[in-house]
Amino acid sequence: MKQVIYLDNAATTRTRPEVVEAMMPFFTEHYGNPSSVYEFSTPCKKAIAHTREIIAKSLGAKANEIYFTAGGTEADNWAIKATAEAYAEKGKHIITSKIEHHAVLHTCEYLEKRGFEVTYLDVDEYGTIKLDELKKAIRPDTILISIMFANNEIGTVEPVKEIGRIAKEHGILFHTDAVQAYGHLPINVDEYGIDMLSSSSHKLNGPKGIGFLYIRTGLKTRSFVHGGAQERKRRGGTENVPGIAGYGKAVEIAMATMEERTKKETELRDYLIEQVIAQVPYTRLNGHRTSRLSNNANFAFQFIEGESLLIMLDSSGICGSSGSACTSGSLDPSHVLLAIGLPHEIAHGSLRLTLNEENTKEEMDFVVEQIKEIVAKLRSMSPLYEDFMKRSR
Ligand code: PLP
Fold it and tell me: Is the CB of 92 within 6 Å of ligand 1?
């Protein structure tokens, strides 16, 4: 396999060897069904309980408030649909934002077709929620505010504490999609006033296909996946025991290394941003300069197509993304870039690079060099650029 520089850690991350090691016995030796009564299944039950404890501790929550799901998408669907159903008698209004992941946006659209009303809040040019607009959007029939902790495309970290406070003041439930933030930023559900929180293991060096939804005690919620009595009868289906064991290990490592890891990533991220902005003219950074995830850099290069840039970077062994992985393959510009006010043609020239702590300065230098060359080449073929240069002479 050719050498790659992997800069798409917001799409997914490498499963750590320690995580794979923690999972292996649950494929080979301890393959029992955790619902079975015999002792052979005890290690499986213990592994599930252990991961639940680790996750609860990391959030300042209780173990029985953590429900395993098949990932972030399911957790978002569960939080929003089940709350809507359980609180429909109180009201049918939900507030979210225009920059949420499609797991939230499409769930809200689904509910709109079933009689719910949804307010999609605007964001400012950095992708930050406007708190005064949030306050104005609240109505007597508002039952839920669902705002992401940090954006998956542009990395902007939202004012979650303030949102939590506003929700509490008005007696409204607050769900946050923390898929990109959990394991990367310290989160305490009480301090932040969070009632429900979604996470996904493969964004923090754990396996794919496993996530959780935190649900605060006392909330009226409904079973989302109907079936067996797993997850206290709220999420049927035989547990993904290897996945849960691996998730526990990944969370343990993510929490223990958070400070050092994010410091290193921030330094590399800032170096990459400075170099790209300095060396590639007509380029802007998307997202907030400081209130942003430690590993996220997102650029808009004027006069080029992000897809062409991506393909040419791939030929140089560099993995990036032109928006969110879930929307690549579509020709529509990213809804997030449009929401921060980028015109279509500039939104089309975007590139997301998301680092990890294993990346090096040498890799960043190589990436900057490649971007510089490729952008110049693409611009030399661009009629828009030619026209712009003629007019600016
Ligand atoms: N929410 C956000 C913010 C994400 O970035 C993603 C994945 O990219 C998801 C939800 C969906 O998570 P999963 O891939 O585990 O279903």
Answer: no
Residues with Cβ within 8 Å of residue 71, at least 6 apart in sequence: 200, 201, 202, 208, 209, 210, 211
Q: Tell me the one-letter amino acid at 113.
A: K
Q: Is the shortest distance between the CB of 146 and ligand 1 below 6 Å?
A: no
- For residues 103 and 76, the answer to whether their CB atoms sit within 8 Å is yes
Structure tokens, 93? 């209004």
pLDDT, position 332: 78
Distance, CA 200 to ligand 1 centroid (Å)? Answer: 7
Residues 359-369: tens digit of each pLDDT: 999 999 999 99
Q: Which of 12, 15, 73 to mutate to test the pocket of ligand 1 (most atoms within 8 A of CB)?
A: 73
pLDDT at 358 over 80: yes
Cα 30–34–36 angle (5° rounding)? Answer: 105
84: Cβ–Cβ under 8 A, 6 or more apart, which residues? 92, 94, 111, 116, 143, 144
Q: Is 108 a catalytic residue?
A: no
If you search the block for the tokens 């619902």, which residue do you land on?
35
